[in-house]
Amino acid sequence: MAHTSVTDGAAPSRPASAQDFHNIKVLGTGAFGSVYLAERIHDGVKVAIKRIDMLNAVRNLPREEKTMFMERLDAEIGLLKDLALAPHKNIVLYHDSFLDDATSELCVVMEYVKVFTYPLICI
């Protein structure tokens, strides 16, 4: 899977890595990984980073299914990149992706969307 970057602002000229971000807190977890609220160090922008445990995700899959999994993952990131070229207010923006060699996690850097909850008014 080739590295690609769709960034806003002045980004480093090298591919992104885990060292470019400071994790703040876990936003959620799933079967193959977690999503973190993080801060991009060079500009302080808050982002969401989906960290997919690649070893765990493909560990028990037969070879053909591993290949299919990787192809689907590559297609999904390709779609996110395409969507980032024509931003829409209802679609979370893709910023970047990279493999964290230290943890074997695929990291997908996305726009952080703060969810506002409104109190329920009972009459």
What do you see in this structure?
- With 123 residues, the protein is of the alpha+beta class.
- The protein has a single domain, classed as Phosphorylase Kinase, domain 1 (2-Layer Sandwich), CATH 3.30.200.
- The chain is 23% helix and 33% strand.
- It has two helices and six strands; from the N terminus they run ββββααββ.
- The chain has helices at residues 54-58, 63-85, and strands spanning 4-5, 21-29, 33-40, 46-53, 94-100, 105-111.
- Strands 1-5-6-4-3-2 form a six-stranded antiparallel β-sheet.
- β3 (33-40) and β4 form a beta hairpin.
- The longest helix is centred in the middle third of the chain and has 23 residues, at 63-85.
- The chain starts with a strand and ends in a 12-residue tail after the last strand.
- The model is unreliable at 1-7 (pLDDT under 50).
- InterPro entries: Kinase-like_dom_sf (IPR011009), NEK_Ser/Thr_kinase_NIMA (IPR051131), Prot_kinase_dom (IPR000719), Protein_kinase_ATP_BS (IPR017441).
- Residues 21-123 form the Protein kinase domain.
- ATP binds at residue 50.
- Keywords: ATP-binding, Kinase, Nucleotide-binding, Serine/threonine-protein kinase, Transferase.
- This is non-specific serine/threonine protein kinase.
Tell me the strand order in the biggest sheet: 1-5-6-4-3-2
What is the CATH architecture term?
A: 2-Layer Sandwich
CATH superfamily: Phosphorylase Kinase, domain 1
CATH-defined topology:
Phosphorylase Kinase, domain 1
- Largest sheet, strands/sense/barrel: 6 strands, antiparallel
Overall mean pLDDT stands at 84
Tally of distinct domains: 1
Count all strands and give the number. 6
